[in-house]
Amino acid sequence: MSEHWSKLVEWLPANDDPNRPRMTLSTAEPDARTLLLSEFDEHGFYFHTDSRSRKVEQLAEDPRVALTLLWPDFTRQLVVLGVAELAPFDEQARAYRARSPYLKQLAWLNDAENAQLPAEERRARWASFTDDPESLQPPETWVGFLVRPHRLTFWEGDPNAASRRTEFTLIDGDWHKGYLPG
Ligand SMILES: Cc1cc2nc3c(=O)[nH]c(=O)nc-3n(C[C@H](O)[C@H](O)[C@H](O)COP(=O)(O)O)c2cc1C
Predict the structure, then answer these.
(1) Which atom of ligand 1 is nearest to the CA of 50?
(2) Which residue in 173, 175, 174 sits closest to 7, CA to CA?
(3) Residue 50: enclosing H or E segment and its boundaries?
(4) 35 CA to centre of ligand 1 in angstroms
C-alpha cells in the first residue's frame, strides 16, 4: 500500500461511517462552501450536489479545486488539490442510497423556487412530500463529482512540538513526499 494512501485510510473515517467529514470545496473562480465528503477511494474524493448549483457552473468553467478537511475537530487538516470530474453513475446511485432520509428528501426539494417561500410554506411543502425515503430514487438534478488529487497536504498539530505538514505530490505518475513547516 502506498504511503499517501495508508495515511488517508488512517486519517479519514471509513466510507460506511455515517458521521461524514465536512470539507470546504474551493473553486477556481474563486468561491468556497462546506460539503460532506461522501466517500473516497484510490481514485480520489467524492462529493454530491445539485446540478443547478453555482459550484457546478463554476466546475464546468474550470474543474480545478481545493478541498480542505478538518478531521477530527481541529487536530488534523488535510488539503487536497485536484481536478473534479463527473463521478461514475453507479457511484452516484450508491452515494444517494447511503444518504440519510432527510438528505434524500432534501435532494428533491432544495430548489430555487422553494428558497423564495416563507418558512411555513417551506415546512408545508416538506411535510406534504409523501414518497418513502427508503425507496426514493435520486432526482435528475442529483450529481456526483470525483476529485482526482495531485497534491495531498497533511497538517498535524503536536502540543509538545511545532506543527508540521507532510506533503505528497504527484509528478509524472509518481507520488513524492516532503515535509513543510506547519
Ligand atoms: C455542514 C454542511 C454540509 C453540507 N453538505 C453539502 C453537500 O454535501 N452537498 C451540497 O450540495 N451542499 C452541501 N451543503 C450546502 C453548501 O455549503 C452550499 O450552501 C450549497 O451546496 C450551495 O453552494 P453553491 O451555491 O456554491 O453551489 C452543506 C452545508 C453545510 C453547512
Answers:
(1) 11
(2) 175
(3) strand 44-50
(4) 5
Give me ligand 1 centre to Cα 59, in Å: 15
Low-confidence spans in the chain with pLDDT less than 50? none
Reduce the DSSP state of residue 55 to 3 states and report it. Answer: helix
**H or E element, residue 66:** strand 64-70
Ligand 1 atom nearest the C-alpha of 27 is 26
Which atom of ligand 1 is nearest the CA belonging to 54? 27
Note the pLDDT tens digit of each residue in 100-142.
999 999 999 999 999 999 999 999 999 999 888 778 999 999 9
Gap between the Cα atoms of 127 and 104, Å rounded: 14
What does the pLDDT read at residue 131? 83
- Protein residue closest via CA to atom 29 of ligand 1: 34
Domain-by-domain residue ranges, the chain?
A: 3-102+141-181
C-alpha span between 174 and 172 (Å, rounded): 6
CATH number of 3-102+141-181: 2.30.110.10
Query: What's the number of CA atoms in the CB half-sphere (13 Å) around residue 13?
Result: 16
Q: What is the pLDDT of residue 71?
A: 84
Residue 141 and residue 56 in contact, taking contact as beta carbons nearer than 8 Å: no
Handedness of CA 146, 39, 24, 104 (dihedral sign): positive
- CB-defined site of ligand 1, < 6 Å: 22, 31, 33-36, 47-50, 53-55
